[in-house]
Amino acid sequence: MKINLKQNSWAWFQHRKNFVNASEIGTIMGLNPYETKEDLIKKKLFGSSFISNPAMEHGKKTEPKANLFFSVKTKRNYKPAVFTRDIFSASLDGYHAESETMLEIKCPLDKNSSSWKDFFEKDIIPSYYWAQIQCGLFCSESKSAFFLVYFNPQEHYLQEVFLKSSFIEEMKIKAQEYQKILQQYQTLMKAEKKIKDDKHKTKYK
């Protein structure tokens, strides 16, 4: 289901708290070498102090250019969109309703980064990005996804990705397991807070 939300808005951040998000799937499935499931759970419980870094700032600045480039190239207006399905949510860099296709954009700061080596040498999408795309396909029910790695109009790389049903089934199982653990910790934290509050009230009676 398509949701009327502006990405990076306050309402969007609040929305993400209630779902398993596409960008988290790689971590939940054990495919993200930069974040563990435990890291993600702590982030969900306590929030994140992380603000940004040069690579993220470069991506934010370059993604609109990449979207415009691809939209003009394909003669399709790919618009950012948010979709939900079951317990999942996906914030797409672009969605084209008429063709039922989605767009996922990455704008690496450094082409020589080790995380991109297999992509440029063997056309293998980093597994955590591929997992993100799979969740996007599932949520939006798109026929296919275009994975665009963009540097500039002269240098860009494109792959078309299709839904893999076996991965989706595994994703559902792993996400439910993750949610169960997260909810257990959330319940524990609420109980601990109640005990602390009750002690505080008793002390000052």
TrEMBL record:
InterPro entries: Lambda-type_endonuclease, NF-kappa-B_Signaling_Reg, PDDEXK-like_dom_sf, Restrct_endonuc-II-like, YqaJ_viral_recombinase. Signal peptide: none annotated. The keyword Chloroplast does not apply. One of its GO terms (molecular function) is endonuclease activity. Residues 12-141 form the YqaJ viral recombinase domain. Keywords: Endonuclease, Hydrolase, Nuclease. This is Endonuclease.
